[in-house]
């Protein structure tokens, strides 16, 4: 079943101590924020076709998410994809096919809506993050709502771009990690989501 409005708007916390690492990246992506690249949507379509070929009818939905899915928004040069499958806990149905299609299984997060995380793992390929979820995951809905709000709200799109540049600069100067970069954006992301939820009538 799809998530309820209450589940979508509920506060959430990722518990890092519960993350199960399966493998490690062979190449770390850059935190640098780049100007919008008109090639990003096409890159998503190319990866989408590869995933569809690998998993077929086990797929429920494939969505381009993250900053590269918002035209005009600066972003890291990474394509983020929400891959919704029939059952994210049924790893036997999708892990090996995704690995054969060129993706590396990095993380398992049972405590965070059964999230599984893969990255592109082919020589000289562009960076791609694939987030695997079940149909009841509220996180997929939040990603879609955040993306759609930025598409129609120039003020928040500009605010988010500013915060991304600042977070990347601060993280780089501190020699920090991708997680620290993400943490620096979190307050602004939650503020923007709050406005999006109110616009949808999900909260008052």
Written description of the protein model:
With 204 residues, this protein is α+β, with helices and mostly antiparallel strands. The protein has one domain (19-200): 2-Layer Sandwich (Beta Polymerase, domain 2). It contains 6 helices and 6 strands, in the order αβαββαβββααα. The chain has helices at residues 5-9, 40-55, 95-100, 138-152, 154-173, 178-200, and strands at 20-21, 59-65, 78-85, 103-109, 115-120, 127-133. A 6-stranded mixed beta sheet has the order 1-4-5-6-3-2, with helices on both faces. Strand 4 (103-109) and strand 5 (115-120) form a beta hairpin. Helix 4 packs across helix 6 (178-200). It is globular and about 40 Å long. The relative contact order is 0.16. It comes from Lipomyces kononenkoae (Yeast). This is UPF0157-domain-containing protein.
| Number of separate helices | 6
Mean pLDDT: 95
Assign a percent range to the helix content: 40-55%
Count of DSSP strands: 6
Shape from CA axes?
A: globular
Topology, pairings included?
Elements: H1 5-9, E1 20-21, H2 40-55, E2 59-65, E3 78-85, H3 95-100, E4 103-109, E5 115-120, E6 127-133, H4 138-152, H5 154-173, H6 178-200
Parallel strand pairs: 3-6
Antiparallel strand pairs: 1-4, 2-3, 4-5, 5-6
Helix pairs in contact: 4-5, 4-6, 5-6
Describe the structure in brief.
By secondary structure, the chain is α+β, with helices and mostly antiparallel strands. The chain has helices at residues 5-9, 40-55, 95-100, 138-152, 154-173, 178-200; strands at residues 20-21, 59-65, 78-85, 103-109, 115-120, 127-133.
